[in-house]
Amino acid sequence: MPPFRRRSHAALAATLLGSVALAGTADARVINVAPNHNITVFAGIDFIAAFGDQPGVSTTVEVLRNGQLIGTATGPAVDLAGFDPPNHGGLEVNHGPAGAPQPGDCWTGFTPDIIPGDIVRVTRGAAVEEVEVDNITIDDGPFVDSVGNIVVRGTAALADGTPIPIERLDSGEVRNTSTFRGAPTSVFRTPGTAAGWTMIYDVNRPLDRERTVLTPSARRDVIMAGAHAMGYGHALVPPPAEIQLADGEVPGPALGCEASAGESNAVSSADDKAVNLASADLALTGKAMAATVNDDITQVIPKVSDGTTTLTGAPIDITGAVRTWTATFTRAQLDTLADGQLTVSADYVTPGGAIGGHTLTLAKDVVAADVTADTAPGEYTGPLSVALRAGVGETITYRTDGLANGANDRAYTGAINLPFGTTTISARVTDAAGNVTDKAFTYTVNAPAAPAPNAVTPPLLAPAPAPLVTGPKLKLDALMVTSRLSLGTARRRGLHAVVFAPDGANYVRVRLLRGRKVIASVVRRVSSDGVMTIVLPQSKKARRALRRGTYRLEVTPGANERHYGATSKRTVRIR
Question: Is the CA virtual torsion 139, 142, 144, 147 positive or negative?
């Protein structure tokens, strides 16, 4: 389907300008934009537009990082037919020209990979205007929630991390230019986040533009297949001095601009997904731009930081044709950093100074996971069941056949009923960082003594029932799950579920099944706000074992680990 940037010049201008002249508005991050002018930033696809000029005015669009020029394009403002003078001209860089590219349609030399904190500078005649690129992302979705609506989530913050107010995010949208276009039904702050946003499409409400009236089921399908965007200013008439949006497309040259190859500074990958008890040295790979507009990049200096302490690697010479780099931080170096989120970055050194690029985040956790039993190992007169416990976000598997823990362990879903005789529960707990701990709990369960001959057997009294939750049976407030995803995505990221636990729930039990077989299972303590994101399977190995087909996700809230309420079920199809 056509992505957002594959529109004609007049179509985008119509969206931005309407039938009135542009007008500037005050904004803390607008450095300088003249009245009746506008700068539009699609940083994720390296597309910049400048509107509000007379046609023919020479316009230069530049991108600067740490004061250095990393992208430039120059051309005349294009006459946007159908708009009243004098402000009906504009220049769009890397939007996807129709036909052969004209001056200013594409970046000169190469397409810069624009990131938050970059400065966009527009020179129109003698006027020089600037805005700073915000950090607006689309991170999750679209997926179908518990009532059949469509959910998309992301973050929106200024370059310094200040959250963008939810009420300012007026440009959420889904589109397929040949079929439909529409705004979400609601946009709200993602629970438990400072800068997260969630937008929801009610599939029972028609979209703003539907070529034909769709049924709710058909509308759900087209929204799931559509291109989504989020940001601010795009829906305002007249628009403000700046408009910034994120969409789901990939960065680099637009169609028609392939001659301006994409250039990026980035930490591309790490050989470990987390720094944990078992991990060794951390090997990194990355890439560097061939040059800025004015200077070559001669060195890369890799860094790893916990926010307080920063490890700085040796400079890497990248002169010449090879623009990739590798670096290694030893385990001894990583041990000097605090547990928590680590940021992997690099300085890209030029004769004019160092500039930055895309970073990578890793978790560090070198505290062993632990699993405990609610009943101490020993000898008991049966019957007996044993419940296991672990920390929030940790997964328990177990076996009782006397073999060592491994790939064929059973997923722990609740208390284990033990037979008469001696049984060893071999339990394994794995935390989010991949730390693994194995523990064994051995029990001998004796059968009750037989009654004496001719003795009167008293009635067998049932054990006192465990405390029950009063009131109605616990049921989830909501469950949001992606109903369809590709096999590659499932193996890389797992299946994500957002659980809204009801009042009175202290635990939720989550199981992923294919047919009757349990693929993965976890019991989680309910968070303070009752909203949790759970990913199954949790281990990389288990995700690699996923296959195409239909799966069932079951989520059950409980007052404790023995007493659970109603189970909510969702079908997930891996294609």
Answer: positive
Distance CA 260, CA 103 (A): 13
CB 305 within 8 A of CB 343: yes
Give 535-563 as a DSSP string. Answer: EES-SHHHHHT--SEEEEEEEEEESSSS-
Closest among 516, 523, 520, 573 to 548, alpha carbons compared: 573
Tokens at 464, concatenated: 């006192």
Pairwise CA distance, residues 512 & 520, whole Å: 5
Helices and strands counted in the chain (H then E) = 5, 47
Domain 372-446 sits in CATH at 2.60.40.1220
> Residue 146, Cβ neighbours under 10 Å: how many?
18
Q: Do domains 372-446 and 478-574 have the same CATH topology?
A: yes
What pLDDT score does 542 carry?
84
Query: In this structure, which amino acid lies at residue 539?
Result: S
The reply to whether omega before 240 is within 30° of 0 (cis) is no
- 82 has pLDDT over 60: no
- Report whether 575 contacts 486 (CB < 8 A): yes
Beta pairing, strands 173-176 & 209-210: unpaired
User: From CA 233, how far away is CA 370, in angstroms rounded?
Assistant: 50
1 and 226 in contact (C-beta within 8 Å)? yes
Note the pLDDT tens digit of each residue in 40-66: 999 999 999 998 888 888 999 999 999
State the fold for domain 9-133. Immunoglobulin-like (2.60.40)
Residues facing residue 312 across a β-bridge: 303
Q: Provide the CB-side half-sphere exposure for 234 (13 A, CA).
A: 23
* CATH 2.60.40.2550 corresponds to the domain 478-574: yes
d(CA 441, CA 448): 22
Fold of 263-362: Immunoglobulin-like (2.60.40)
User: Nearest-CA neighbor of 120 among 111, 129, 109?
Assistant: 129
Taking 3-state DSSP, the helix, strand and coil percentages for the chain, each rounded to the nearest 5, stand at 5, 45, 50
Kindly give, in sequence order, each residue whose CB lies less than 8 Å from that of residue 520, ignoring residues fewer than 6 positions away: 395, 411, 511, 512, 536, 537, 538, 542
The residue-averaged pLDDT of 306-330 equals 90
Name the strand (E) or helix (H) holding 221: helix 216-225
d(CA 499, CA 527): 10
Question: In this structure, what DSSP letter does residue 432 have?
Answer: T
Averaged over 331-356, what is the pLDDT? 93
Residue ranges with strand state E in 365-449: 372-373, 378-381, 384-386, 388-389, 395-399, 410-411, 416-418, 421-430, 436-446
Q: Which two tokens stand for residue 365?
A: 């956790």
Are the C-beta atoms of residues 55 and 84 closer than 8 Å to each other? no
Q: Which helix (H) or strand (E) holds 302?
A: strand 299-305
Q: State the pairing for strand pair 549-558/568-574.
A: antiparallel
Instruction: Supply the pLDDT for residue 318.
Output: 87
DSSP state of 149: -
